[in-house]
Write a structure and sequence with these properties.
Elements (H helix, E strand, L loop, with lengths): L6 H16 L4 E7 L4 E7 L4 E7 L12 H17 L5 E4 L8 H11 L5
Parallel strand pairs: 1-4
Antiparallel strand pairs: 1-2, 2-3
Helix pairs in contact: 2-3
């Protein structure tokens, strides 16, 4: 008997799967958002490794991860780390989260930091 998936679970699976199939050679910027924190990491799916990451859970992080200003600060930190890792050909995997609010602020801060996707 097959397991029934909710609409949200199907959207998560199809979004990530389609992105991996369409862009196998590019680096994926994967977002995780909880009620209190936001995290982003650059993943190379071909090698199966994380190149760089940033989170509101980090020890030196000043701000809060549950608001738009905190998400923008995480995006700025990530953009600085991505520059040192020399990332250029990437795509944004929002992971089924709507492109709005904290996810949008995170993406715009990364773009303002000089990363193009």
């Amino acid at each position: 008997m097959s397991k029934h998936l909710t609409t949200e679970q199907r959207r998560l699976l199809s979004n990530r799967g389609e992105l991996k199939r369409k862009n196998p050679s590019k680096v994926r910027l994967c977002v995780f958002r909880s009620n209190t924190h936001i995290e982003i990491q650059a993943i190379n799916d071909a090698k199966g490794c994380t190149l760089c990451a940033a989170s509101s859970k980090e020890k030196g992080f000043k701000g809060k991860g549950h608001n738009i200003a905190g998400a923008a600060a995480v995006g700025k930190n990530f953009a600085d780390r991505a520059k040192t890792a020399k990332l250029d050909d990437v795509y944004f995997d929002r992971g089924g989260y709507r492109y709005h609010g904290r996810v949008k602020a995170l993406a715009e801060a990364i773009r303002a930091g000089g990363l193009k996707f």
